[in-house]
């Protein structure tokens, strides 16, 4: 979870993630973790800036050969 997603927006300082969206996200992650667990896998969940968290996970695991990521598309005004 990137803490920057829970700060206010640039223009009006409105929350990017409100309470309903946050609850949906948490429930979805919990369900995904439970589904993966039933299949013999797991889900790693961390809080922090992705550029820091991913770097730390790679260092911790040590045998990572590839990293795939998705960048949020931002609207240009």
Automatic annotation (TrEMBL):
Residues 1-77 form the Photolyase/cryptochrome alpha/beta domain. SUPFAM superfamilies: Cryptochrome/photolyase, N-terminal domain. Keywords: Chromophore. The keyword Lipid metabolism does not apply. One of its GO terms (biological process) is photoreactive repair. Gene3D superfamilies: HUPs. It comes from the Eukaryota. The gene is Crydash_0. The lineage of its organism: Eukaryota, Metazoa, Chordata, Craniata, Vertebrata. This is CRYD protein. GO terms for molecular function: damaged DNA binding; deoxyribodipyrimidine photo-lyase activity; FAD binding.
């Amino acid at each position: 979870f990137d803490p920057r997603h829970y700060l206010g927006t640039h223009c009006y300082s409105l929350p990017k993630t409100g309470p309903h969206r946050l609850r949906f996200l948490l429930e979805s992650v919990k369900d995904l973790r439970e589904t993966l667990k039933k299949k013999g896998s797991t889900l790693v969940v961390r809080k922090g800036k992705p550029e820091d968290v991913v770097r730390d996970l790679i260092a911790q695991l040590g045998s990572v050969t590839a990293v795939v990521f998705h960048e949020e598309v931002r609207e240009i005004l």
